[in-house]
Amino acid sequence: MDQTSADKARIARQFIEAIPFSRALQMRLEEIGEGVAVISMPWSEMIVGDPTLSVVHGGAVSALMDTCGGAAVMSHPQALAGTATIDLRIDYMRAATSGQRITARAECYHLTRSVAFVRAEAWDEDRTRPVAAATGAFTVERITPRDGGRS
Amino acid sequence: MRSPRPPEPVALIKQRRDSTLAALVGAVPYIGFLGVTFDRRGDELTAVLGYDDKLIGNPLVPALHGGAIASFLEVTAIMELSFNMLWDDVEQGRIDAENLGAATLPRLPKTIDFTVDYLRSGLPRDAYARARVNRQGRRYASVHVEAWQDHRQKLFAQATGHFLMPPRDG
Fold first, then answer.
1. Is residue B147 part of a domain?
2. Percent of chain A whose pLDDT exceeds 90
3. Among B54, B60, B115, whose Cβ lies nearest the Cβ of A150?
4. Would residue B45 count as lying in a domain?
5. What residue in A sits closest to B70 (Cα-Cα)?
6. How many domains does chain B have?
7. From the list B57, B60, B74, which residue is nearest A59 (CB)?
8. Where are the alpha helices (DSSP H) in chain A?
9. pLDDT category of residue A122 using cuts at 50, 70 and 90
């Protein structure tokens, strides 16, 4: 990883770790750089969606996928600054096992001047059987002098 | 000639329907975590996402987190399906609304897939959503959800999801 990529990864890490909703879900950034991000989230009682099996709600998995997708875009060597989700589709392949940490890995596999295309996958402690897969499109934000460099 | 049965007191009808909704909402911890409540008019539900600082995704803008929006829409879709599923059983007395709890509730629908369109950024204030069941079979259902903030006609997000319905008796 060259110096620019390392800086980009550091900035992305700081930004992601400051996101209130991700903090509320206790997300942890595991890896980031070169358009790939890995983020995990612990099981907890408060994010249960199906009380009979204590299974995590699909919405919490969506939040993990969305955060991970955005992080992947921000860490892409050609991306400039922040990003916003245009659309995100999640396929729920199986219920995550109760009590287990969920980990997502997202990859920004194509970037145009305006759009970043992302694929992601999530699994629990059994890495061989994914719990969910996602595909999404994200905006590529431009840094302009008028808004002081904010995205 | 038989005299018609007197109409059921309106307070009783409302209590039965509100109890059913409260039992469903109370059974799902994630709904409480998000801070979603439901307004009911007859069988029409409006989900309300009460604003909270923890729902923010980009503190610089600030805007609601895409994951919080997706969660809100999915919660709304599942509640619409679950409430519809229970409606007839409760109205016709096959299920007693007053005794509905985590142990007696039927299994909830399971999400197969869920696609969210983010139409504009979510402002740091309350949001509302309504779901429409476009197709409901014995096993599969297709649901569309619309979410707005200040103006009903100006959606800030919409979603379509497919759901696996729990097996029914009979």
1. yes
2. 72
3. B60
4. yes
5. A59
6. 1
7. B74
8. 3-17, 20-24, 58-74
9. very high
pLDDT at B104: 77
Residue in A93, A2, A19 with CA at minimum distance from that of residue B54 = A19
Pick the CATH number of A3-147 from 3.10.129.10, 3.30.200.20, 2.60.120.320, 3.30.2090.10: 3.10.129.10
For the segment B125-153, the average pLDDT, to the nearest whole number, is: 97
Q: Kindly determine whether residue A22 and residue B67, on different chains, have CB atoms separated by under 8 Å.
A: yes
Q: Please give the residue range of the domain that contains residue B130.
A: 10-164
How far does B75 lie from chain A, in Å, by closest CA?
Answer: 7
More confident residue, A99 or A144: A99
Burial class (CB in 10 A: 0-12, 13-18, 19+), B73: buried
User: Smallest CA–CA separation between B46 and chain A, in Å?
Assistant: 18
| pLDDT per residue as tens digits for the range A48-103 | 998 888 999 999 999 999 999 999 999 998 877 789 999 999 999 999 999 999 99
Structure-token match 């770790």, residue found: A17
Q: How far is B106 from chain A (nearest CA, A)?
A: 10
Domain ranges of chain A: 3-147
Least confident of A57-71, A119-133, B4-18, B31-45: B4-18
pLDDT above 50: residue A150 = no
State residue A3's pLDDT score.
61
> Taking CB atoms and an 8 Å limit, are A57 and B110 in contact across chains?
no
From B58, B79, B75, select the one nearest B122 (Cα to Cα).
B58
User: CA-CA distance, A78 to A108, in Å (whole number)?
Assistant: 11
